[in-house]
Amino acid sequence: MAQDTIRLSQQVEAGEGAPSQHRSWMTVFSLQAVLILAAVIALVPAYFMLISSLKTPENYNLDRIGFPAQIVFDSYAEVLLKHDFFLWMGNSAIISIGSVAVSTIIAALAAYAIARMVFRGREFLLAISTSLMAVPPVVMVVPLFVLFSQIDLLGTYQGVILIYAGLLTPFSVYLLVTFFRTIPTELLEAGLIDGASPIGLLWRIMLPLSGPPLVTLFIVNILYVWNDLLIALLFLPNERLRTLMVGVSVFQGRYLQNIPLSMAGMALASAPMLIVYILFQRYFIRGLVAGAVKG
Fold this sequence. Notes:
The chain is mainly alpha-helical. It has 2 domains: about 1-55; about 75-290, MetI-like (MetI-like fold, Orthogonal Bundle). It has helices spanning about 1-55, 55-60, 75-80, 85-115, 120-130, 140-150, 155-180, 185-195, 200-210, 210-225, 230-235, 245-255, 260-280, 280-290. It starts with a helix and ends in a 7-residue tail after the last helix.
């Protein structure tokens, strides 16, 4: 009787375990299928851009989506040698780095005050700052254009850097506040005992521990500024101050019939940010989940 009971128990366990394993396998397979489909959809534009840039105009007109019959780099050579591509890239680098630096400094100070200092209305201040992320930049174009034309900041690096820094700061404050609140209070108390000032706590303790979120801010913000077209197009009318995206867009309109040339310009414009992401990918992923476990 005991042996029959044990055998029946084993059969029940085996019967219950098989469907569970089957459901688990189906779930994993479904998730992988969805991720593969999403990756394919995301890579289709990149594939079209790259194969088009390696074709001649004649080859592109004959076969627009197929692999090039003969790989040529004439479009890349023309973009780099016959146009102000490096000037556009330099302008984009100045504006991107300047905007990210200004916004990060402001966001670090604001996030430190909201996360670690006790004062009335700090949660309301954080809510207002976070809500600004929902305001589309196009809404602020007209008042900013009028204001900057009155204070002589229109058509200058400084003006565009200030605009971008203002657009980047709300998200930066939100991310840093979330992470700063996870830093143990004991570390800050130890710093105060050692004689550190509030700014000293931020500079010597909190910022060194905030490497991943700071790298995340750097990548996300510099990608936004580098790829933005609206602000740079409207607030930098001088051709010598034209950014890379503005240059590529004007370049694309001028050579609309030469699609391989336009695709080569866009591929070269995307390369610097792709390199930045590859170099800092590990820290970027860590920064995205920073502060997600502790509240």
